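Please produce the structure of this protein holding nicotinamide-adenine-dinucleotide.
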Amino acid sequence: MLDQFGIKSALNRLGIEEENKGTCTGDIWIETKETYLGSFSPADGELIAKVQLTDKQSYELVVKQAQEAYKHWRNVAAPQRGEVVRQIGNALREVKSDLGKLVSYEMGKSYQEGLGEVQEMIDICDFAVGLSRQLYGLTMHSERPGHRMYEQWHPIGIVGIISAFNFPVAVWSWNSMIAMVCGDVCIWKPSEKAPLSGVACQHIIAKVLKENNLPEGISSLIIGDYKVGEYLSHDTRIPLVSATGSTRMGKLVAQAVGGRLGRSLLELGGNNAIIISENADLDIAIRGALFGAVGTAGQRCTSTRRLIIQDSVYEEVKSRLVSAYGKLVIGNPLDEKNHVGPLIDTDAVKMYQDAISKAKVEGGKELVVGGVLEGKGFESGCYVKPCIIEAENHFEMVQHETFAPILYLMKYSELEDAIAMQNGVPQGLSSAIMTLNMREAERFLSASGSDCGIANVNIGTSGAEIGGAFGGEKETGGGRESGSDAWKAYMRRQTNTINYSDSLPLAQGIKFDI
Ligand code: NAD
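Below is the modeled complex.
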């Protein structure tokens, strides 16, 4: 398989060898005392390559180097930092197809989605370049005569980035490209399920940093599982930890970082619903629901997990969806004729099977039957059939995020009830309504509408653009990344008051004369 689809040559061009070091401060790769972690492709079960884990000693070197680099980087003018990020964006353009291929092969998303992920990295670089000239603070009028008051934004220091397997490269760039223009330095721990994508990104960025004569430590890589993640969350030298992954992980990271009064930026699990009203354009609704539910084999934080359908269109939506599911082609994600690739590993397959069984025990009715695919092309054991279950919102399995292509269908009669169902889960990431009725759309978007960080009209729940702030409420963690003013999370705010008068009046008119 490595030779098929040009994987071997892509790996070569990305600097991936059979055995790779995993700890890097920029261009210098550090040998550790740890073992090598194998990265296996869920597409065919083959070992792609190995990466050496980071140990505590090498982690210490990385942090020390980052501290040194920060002293330099924070004083580089922000637009010059933007210039470096511009070059990173260009370097990514050159390797778009190779990196997209690696992401697809290592993580299992389709090649098109792999390319999309790299495009997202390029887009965030462009955004960050513009931002580097716009890190605006406000000025305000002082109540004291002859005084000027304003606020400015300074870099915060070292940003620890912990990322999930399903967006193995884009999530890093959302954080690091913004953090870099803000004047921060970054230490990235990619998912242990997609470490090679991290190694490849480090090679790409190292070249640019070197060409600009920048010191080691501006953007570093560490590799490992939760134990290496804990190095970051417990480290008082890391003022901000940005963590993307499950709610379970986020609660642990939040406790560790909060316990030392550090800042955490959390991007956690979702349980996203689309409301399909009787006023929907059903062609759009079906297409939006289909991509949302089966795209990336249901392994997006924004994947559509629940469809809340108005009584009068329920049967039609149901039969059209069942027929569309019948046309899905499941197979190797690098083969562009396939719609659905594998789950990340066999543990994920087990969770998918358990969720289906439990939902059925709770009373769910399987409309499109799921199951694990076997035989030629499915040797990795990670391919499953997208399934549809008629269910109720209060079922334990419906309340829970299962990272797999399982779609729950439910009915409603009044919009208020549909919104209550949409909001009636612990998570609050993405939501959507399909309707051509302006009143319904605006009610959904109003303060008593969707409680999610993302609320769309006539668009599915997945596929956000980088220009908006991305993130969600409740158990999704409350963090915002990427566009809009999400950059503020990566900086510290300072309020400055300057007295240019010849006296010292006190605020609030307080008298203190001697
Ligand atoms: P995961 O929680 O298993 O792992 C995510 C990362 O956290 C990994 O790098 C892992 O090593 C690390 N980690 C785990 N426990 C840790 C701990 N105690 N301390 C420090 N680090 C720890 O998640 P996953 O299976 O890789 O990804 C799937 C999950 O991520 C889903 O819940 C999905 O919704 C969520 N996700 C959310 C977003 C978002 O933006 N909201 C984006 C992508 C994925």
